[in-house]
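Hi C.,

You asked whether I'd gotten around to modeling the 290-residue construct. I have! Everything is below, sequence then structure, no commentary in between.
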Amino acid sequence: MTLDRQQLKKQIHALYRREHEEMGERGTLERLERAREWSLAPTLASGGVVVFPHAGVLDCGHHTAAAVLGCLDSGADRVIVISVLHAFTDEMQEARTRVSAGEDPSQWPFWGIQGPGIEGRAEWRDDHSLISFRHFWSAETARRGIRGPEVVERYPYLVGGRPERLPGMEELAALAQEAVVVSTADPFHHGIGYGDPPERSLAPDEGGLELARTTIEEGIALLEAGDYAGYDAHCLEAKSDARDAGVVFRYLRGELRGSILDMVYTNAAGLYEAPDPTWVAAPLVEWRRP
């Protein structure tokens, strides 16, 4: 069955609208309060990175809110958000597949970094990855009665294990010198709707989350080692959407040590019109300077 990527994008945006409406102001503030369980400002202020999920906000919104609180409490004047850019066209997916197989990314028009203020490609405008981050940011700055620091959204694509070659990387590195850095990832997609055979598809509470943790920790170890090619291959196996974003924040910040602080999941069976189990792991990951 061929995946209609444009239709999937529409369905994801519709789902986000419904979940944000259901959450409402009360649910937003509840998640911001719950996020105080983690104090992430010291990690960010000392050059570390916080990675939050962008799965269903009703499930993992408190993780996104924790990243927002960490940014605002860090005292930084600038926040750089390294975002996932999803392949919502067949050409984008083909480019990603070929680059992961070893093709030179410079052959593709998507190669580079997108985001507000950057001329050129604008696929980032239709991506959903930072919808919830922007929502909690707006809510928390309004509650504090502040404007908040400058937020710079950046969407790398087709890093291909060579972040130093990526167009725009030099400018991004200069921006990051005087900023805190956060990123987003849904690093493990699993089950029938994601192409796993039924006999190997585990429900979250029946071994699935244990598998997710083990797999995500394998990816963390590869990034810790700076093994970008290995990490790219890992992302294919884990069905992680962070093959570009993960490499970029690791390159920007240098040596880091990562750990999973908490993990929940979002059921995606309805989104893909697939049987259970079909779900996404949604961890909050802290990356500290060694």
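If it helps when you're writing up: The CA atoms of residues 113 and 119 lie 10 Å apart.

Thanks,
B.
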